[in-house]
Structure formats: structure tokens, C-alpha cells
Design brief:
With 231 residues, the chain is of the alpha/beta class. The protein has 2 domains: 118 residues, Rossmann fold (3-Layer(aba) Sandwich), CATH 3.40.50; 106 residues, Winged helix-like DNA-binding domain superfamily/Winged helix DNA-binding domain (Arc Repressor Mutant, subunit A, Orthogonal Bundle), CATH 1.10.10. The protein contains 8 helices and 13 strands. The strands form 3 sheets. Strands 2-1-3-4-5 form a 5-stranded parallel β-sheet, sandwiched between helices. A 5-stranded antiparallel β-sheet has the order 9-8-7-6-13, with helices on one face. It has a 3-stranded antiparallel β-sheet with strand order 10-12-11. Strand 8 and strand 9 form a beta hairpin. Helix 6 crosses helix 8. It is elongated.
Length: 231
């Protein structure tokens, strides 16, 4: 997931960039609205986090301009004001959420996850190579052979397939599957990944679940259809 952070306070921007990169996000930081508009026109981002008070323009103005160009881009506004009126103005301008400073990093991550989940169209069937996942019936098959998965195994596999080709950290998997930020659970992710590899990759020349050194895991196929798609 690519996240653009627009905040003139360098210390805050660097802290957010480092923290979010640590859980698997690809982060770009910019100090002003004009540069953000140019970057968003030229590149694709999955989420925008913008400070309400930028040096060159109000954050509300940036959000309004973005809504005219990229109507579906998820946006979180950061501001020091906590009044109902300020939050309402931000939402009316087109922001999806408003978070008052100071805030806990885990709260920002939770809100980002919720917004991205709402923004992503839900696909009932996912496919990566010859692996198919029926999300409605919670059934998996590879090469036409049904694979029995435990509930947590299914949830992890679904998360990997919905983010096919992207590197997901153990913390991101924990936060998504267990819906909590608890480092003590990150080791158990490795256990579930081993189970999934035994059930899905053993006996196949193409290994779908890959380890991303220093980050976590990803799922991908060397087939032509390398990204997850609706079928």
C-alpha cells in the first residue's frame, strides 16, 4: 500500500514515515500542498494523510482540489483542533476521517486499515495462479484440488491474496487477522504460514507463498496472471 503524507512539520512526517514503513507501507512524505497535487497527478497512491494547516494552502483546500481530480482517494485529515465544527468542515470538504493531534500511532493505523478496507471493493472469489479462494463459502482449492483450512489460516490467506504481490509485515497480518496491535502474536504468524505452505505449496513446482526478508510475507505466482483478480 502506497501512502502519501503531507505535513510541513518535518519531525512528525519523518516519525510517521518510519513507523508506517516498519509495518509494511510504502510511504512518501511531502511538505506542501502544491507538490502533493503534482505528485498525485503523476503517481498512484492508496491513501493520503494530510495536515490541516499546510504552509502554502489550507489542508481543506487541498482536499477539495483532490476530490475534483481523484474522487475515490481515501483521505485522513490531521489537525490540532478537536471541535465538532472543525471535524465537520473536514468531512464536508471530502476527508474520510479526521484525527486530532496528539494521537496514538496505533489509532492512526487502525483508522487507515478501516478506510482502506471500505475503499477496496470486496471480491467474493480470488485467484493467484492455480490457487482459488471462495470468500463467500470460505473454501480454497489449488489446481482443482480442495484444500481444508482452519479459520485463521483462511483469514491469513485471504489477506495475502487480496494484497497479491505486496509485502506484508507480520504486524500488519496480526492487526488485520486478530484486529489487535500485539507484538507477542507476530511469532505465531510464522507458525500459520508454515501450515499454509504445507497445505498449499508442498508437491508443487511453483511456490506461491514467499518470504520477504526483513519484512514478512507475500503471495505471488510466476504465471502470466501474477496479481489477484476477481473471477
Amino acid at each position: 500500500m502506497r501512502v502519501l503524507i503531507v505535513d510541513g512539520e518535518t519531525a512528525i512526517a519523518e516519525f510517521l514515515s518510519h513507523s508506517l514503513a516498519g509495518v509494511g507501507y510504502q510511504v512518501v512524505c511531502l511538505p506542501d500542498g502544491a507538490e502533493a497535487l503534482a505528485r498525485l497527478t503523476a503517481e498512484q497512491f492508496d491513501l493520503l494523510v494530510v495536515e490541516a494547516h499546510l504552509k502554502d494552502m489550507p489542508g481543506l483546500k487541498l482536499v477539495e482540489k483532490l476530490r475534483q481530480r481523484k474522487g475515490d482517494l481515501p483521505i485522513i485529515m490531521l489537525g490540532s483542533a478537536s471541535s465538532v465544527e472543525d471535524r465537520v468542515r473536514s468531512l464536508d470538504a471530502g476527508a474520510d476521517d479526521y484525527l486530532s493531534k496528539p494521537f496514538a500511532l496505533v489509532e492512526l493505523q487502525a483508522r487507515m486499515k478501516a478506510i482502506l478496507r471500505r475503499a477496496r471493493p470486496t471480491q467474493e472469489r480470488l485467484q493467484v495462479g492455480d490457487l482459488t479462494l471462495d470468500c463467500a463459502r470460505r473454501k480454497a482449492s489449488r489446481g482443482g484440488r480442495q484444500v481444508d483450512l482452519a479459520p485463521r489460516e483462511f483469514d491469513i490467506l485471504e489477506y495475502l491474496m487480496r494484497n497479491c504481490g505486496q509485502s506484508l509485515s507480520r504486524s500488519m497480518i496480526v492487526q488485520h487477522v486478530w484486529e489487535k496491535d500485539y507484538d507477542g502474536l507476530t511469532n505465531i504468524v510464522d507458525v500459520y504460514i508454515r501450515h499454509l505452505r504445507t497445505k498449499l505449496d508442498e508437491g508443487y513446482d511453483i511456490k506461491l507463498i514467499q518470504t520477504v526478508r526483513g519484512i514478512g510475507y507475500t503471495i505471488r505466482s510466476v504465471d502470466v496472471a501474477e496479481t489477484a483478480q476477481a473471477v
